[in-house]
Amino acid sequence: MKSIHLANTYNGSKLPVKFLTASGWGPLLNLGYFEIMRLPFLIGGLNHFQRHLVKKSVELLNPQPNESILDLACGNGWTTQFIAQHGSKTTGLDLCEPHIKSAQSSFGKAGNIRFIQGDATHLENVATPNSIDKIHCLEAAFHFGPEGRKALLNSAFHVLKPGGTFVLVDITWRTNDPEQIDNVDPENRFRETWQMELFEPFESYSKNAKAIGFVERQILDWTKPVMRVLNLFALIGFMAQHSLTRKALEIARSEYSAIAEHEWKVLLQELRLSQRVLGQSRYAAYIFTKP
Predict the structure, then answer these.
(1) pLDDT in tens, 170-216
(2) What is the 8-class DSSP label of residue 290?
(3) Residue 6: pLDDT band with limits 50, 70, 90
(4) Nearest-angstrom CA–CA distance, 154 and 288
(5) Do 66 and 87 touch, CB atoms closer than 8 A?
(6) Number of folded domains that form the chain
(7) What predicted TM-score, i.e. pTM, was given to this entire model?
(8) Residue 113 within a domain
(9) By C-alpha distance, which of 146, 142, 144, 121 is closest to 282?
(10) Using 50, 70 and 90 to split pLDDT, how confident is the model at 164?
(11) Is there a domain that residue 81 lies in?
């Protein structure tokens, strides 16, 4: 049942994802990495920035030829195939059957790639202990819930080889009190839309990973380049409330014409809610190794 709800989150049936798709969301399902110098690429939509985030994340992973790598919550498989381009034996794992079918259709013919439907919090079902060189999980674990994220860390530690690396990139909560989300999402609308409970506190990932036995190699704070897109979204939503500027948006990006006037009014509320919630978050990349 959880996999169905997650798949429905990203299939375009919900208004925020309909908006993201119209804004040029490609087969990738991440927010993107928006460096100032690259902002002119917005004319082509969001996919350029989503791919840039993948490249930044995979640079931390540093895949090498013949390494055994798990790409967790692989979605439609683009990140998995990007990792595999480095010559690694890469497995994409995702809970949602539609994502796995899409990934297999697009990238499954490559000899060093396979895709499996499975749960990232139970990696013992797809790999034996001490068998995996590296694990990658990009912007997905916020869906797992607090206990699910602890299970993810435990499971990753179990299947990694000694010396193996886990690159975990996720949206986290700024403070150690993630229940504060109730103050900015009192009606649970954001959490219902994105099928999540609470964000992991920024400091908890390190604390929990160390308690399991991981060594923390590096933490990168990518909040500013990732979350600056929220201001852009809010501006687009505001412009769409007025007929002349909405027409200009539709001329600049014809896909916006698929969003009706009444939908734009609801969408502006959703975008402002996202600003409030994610304004309390941090976007972090963690590199953990197994001794």
Answers:
(1) 999 999 999 999 999 999 999 999 999 999 999 999 999 999 999 99
(2) -
(3) confident
(4) 12
(5) yes
(6) 1
(7) 0.95
(8) yes
(9) 142
(10) very high
(11) yes
> Domain range spanning residue 97?
2-14+24-224
Q: Which helix (H) or strand (E) holds 281?
A: strand 281-289
Sign (positive/negative) of CA torsion 204, 225, 75, 196? positive
- What pLDDT score was predicted for residue 113? 97
Q: Taking a C-beta distance cutoff of 8 angstroms, is the pair 229, 201 a contact?
A: no
Counted residue by residue, the chain has a size of 291
Q: Record the tokens describing residue 105, joined without a space.
A: 């259709």
CA distance 207 to 13: 37
SS3 category, 135: strand
Instruction: Write down the number of H helices and E strands in the chain.
Output: 13, 8
Residue type, 29: L
Distance CA(178)–CA(93), nearest Å, equals 28
CATH of the domain at 189: 3.40.50.150
